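hey can u run this one w/ adenosine-5'-diphosphate bound, need the C-alpha cells asap thx
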Amino acid sequence: MKFLCVDCDRQMTFEERQLPGDGTLAAAFRCPQCGRVVAMLTNPMETQLVASLGVQIGGRTIPAQPMEMVRGMVAGGKEDAFEDGGGHFPTWSDDAQERLARVPGFVRGMVKRIYSEYARDRGITVVTTAVMDAARTELGLEGM
Amino acid sequence: MHIRTYHELTEPDRSGLAAQIMAQRRRVAQRLAGVGRLIAVMSGKGGVGKSYVTAHAARALARVGRRVGVLDADLNGPTAARLLEARDGPLAVREDGIEPAVGADGVRVVSMDQLLADGRPLAFRGPEAESFVWRGAAEAAALREFVGDVTWGALDVLFVDLPPGLARFQELAELLPAAPAVLTVTIPTAESGDAVRRALRAALERGARPLGIVENMVGGAFVGVAGDTLAREFGTPLLARVPWHPTPDVWHQLAETIWNAV
Ligand SMILES: Nc1ncnc2c1ncn2[C@@H]1O[C@H](COP(=O)(O)OP(=O)(O)O)[C@@H](O)[C@H]1O
Ligand SMILES: [Mg+2]
Ligand SMILES: [Zn+2]
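ok here u go:
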C-alpha cells in the first residue's frame, strides 16, 4: 500500500507503527513536502489478518525470528516447547524481568531475545522497562 | 480531484508486503536447497494410515542410511511426533532456525504436537469472532514456518505428512519452488478410492508428480481394489499393499520402492 498526499501530489513516507495492545494497529505516514501526518488504523481482525501472513505494514524493522508467527500467535503452547540458546546478552533490571515474566512461557524466550538483541545492538547493558517501551515502539512488537 | 494511481507513484512501496512475501518464499527455497526429494503424502480421507505409512517408510529409509525428515503438516491432528517417538522437546532455537527433533532411527521431525501443551487443540491468539477470516492464513503461515524456519539441513528425503482433504496440499504447493511428488495412501474400499481420486486429481492439476499408490489395511475388514483401480487410472505404480500390522520387511520393501521411484 502507498499513501499519497493529494494536495502536494507526493507519496507519503512511513513514519512509525504503534501497537496499543488492544489488538489494533496504527501506522503513521508523513508527507515529505508539507509535513502532514496521517495514521492508518486497523481493527483487530484486519491487524490479525496481516499478522497471520507474517508481514508488517510499513516494512520490517527487524528480520523475522524463526517460527515467529507460530511462537507469537499459537495459544496454549507448551511452556518449554523451545529452548533459546544463550549468547552475549545484557542483564535485566528487576522490573523488566517482572514484566517479561508476564509474557506467556511459549514465547518468552523469543521475546527476551528480541529485547536483548535490541539492547545489545545499541550498546545498552541493562534492559529496563524504559528500554522495553522504546523497543516496543521502535520495533512494533505487539503485546510483548 | 486528480489522484495518481498506485502504479503512477514511482517511489517504492515502503510497506513492501509483496516483497516481504517474496522474502518468505526465498527463505523456503533456500531451506529446501539441501533436500534431495520432497514427498507429500496425501489421501482423500482421514484414518487411512497416511501418518502410519509415512512414519514407517521414513524409518525404513533411515535404517538403510538415508537422511530423512518428516514434516507434520497435519496441524490440527498431529500424530507424526508420537509415531516417530519425537514428542519430547524442547526444540532448540539456533541463529538460523529451529532444530528438528531427532526421532526413532534418526528421522528428523517437526510437529505441532511438540509445541502444544498436552491435549490442547491448535488455537491462535486473536479476535475469536472473526477467526474464520484469518485462521486459514495463520495455518498456512505455520506450515511455511515448518518448512522455511527449520534447520532441515541436508536430507535425502523430506516427507510432508498432510491432513485429509486438499487445502493443505494447495498451501504447500504454493510455497514450494516446484510442485512436490505425491505419495498417495488409500484403503481398499471404493469409498476411499473416490476420495483419493478427487484429491489426486486436484494435486495433479497443480503440477504435482504422482509417485505411486500405497494400499493400506489390506486383508482385513476393508474390501475392494481401490489401489489397483487408482494405479491404472492415473498410470502410476501401486507401490505396496500393506497388511494390518505388517512385518519390517514390508516397510523395507516400500522404502526401496519409494527410493527408486523418486
Ligand atoms: N497397516 C496398519 N496396521 C495397523 N494399524 C494401522 C495400519 N495403518 C494404520 N493403522 C492405524 O490406524 C490409525 C489411523 O492411521 P493414521 O496413520 O493416523 O491415519 P491418517 O494419517 O491417514 O489419518 C492409527 O491408529 C494407525 O496406527
Ligand atoms: Mg495423519
Ligand atoms: Zn503534502
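The pocket of zinc ion (ligand 3) is lined by residues A 5, 7-8, 10, 31, 33-34, 36 (CB under 6 Å). anyway lmk if its weird
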